[in-house]
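Exam revision sheet. Question 4 asks you to relate a sequence to its structure. Input first:
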Amino acid sequence: MGTSSPVSAPEREFDADAIKDWVVARAKPLSIGAGAVVVVIAGVMFWQQSARLKEDRAETAYGQGATSFYSGNAPLAKTDLEKVIARYPGTTGAAQAAILLAQMSYGEGKYDAGVKQLTDVQGSAPDVLRAEIEEMIGAGLADAKKYDEAAKHYLKAGDLSRFPADKDLYKAEAARVLGIAGKSADARKIWAELAANRESPVINEARVRVGELDAKAASK
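Answer key, C-alpha cells:
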C-alpha cells in the first residue's frame, strides 16, 4: 500500500538501462551528427557573409560608375557600370548599373541596346527592382515605337509593384501607349478602371481620358 507495484520498478530500471545502452552505442554517430550540424551552420553563415560582402562591393562599384556619369564622364561611367554587371551578377548594384546604362543608351537613341542591357539582368535582379526594370523596358520599347510590347511591360511592372500608387502609374503608362497605338478600346478599359479608384494618383487624368475617348467614339 502506498508503494509501487512489483512490476513498475523493474520496468523503470529497464528503461533507464536501455537509454544508457542506446547512448553508449550511438555516442560516435551522435558526435558526428553534431559536428555535421556545426559544419552546416558554419557554411550558411559563411554564405550569408559572402553574399553581404558581394552586395557591398557591388554597391560601392555602382556608386563609382554613377559618380562618373553625373560628373559628365559618360565613357568612364559606361566602363565602370559594365564591370559591375560582369563582376557582381545578381546583386542590387548590378541591376542598378543596368538601369543606368539603359538610360544612357536611350539618351543616345539606342533603344534596342538599352532594352537588352535590362533583359540581360532581369532574371537575376532582386525582387525590389523587378518592377522598375519592367517599366524601363517598356519605356525603351515605347521610344522605339513598339507600343504593343511596351504596354505589356508596363502592365507587368504594375503586377510586380508592391505599392498601389505605383501600380496605377504603370497602368496609366500602358493606357497612354495603347492610345498612341490606336487601340482605343484597350486604353479606355484601363482608364475606366483607374477613374473608378478614388485613391488612384491618376484619377483626374483617367477621367479626362475616358471622356475624350467616349467623345471621339460618339463623333464617328
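Marking note for examiners. The first helix runs from residue 8 to 25.
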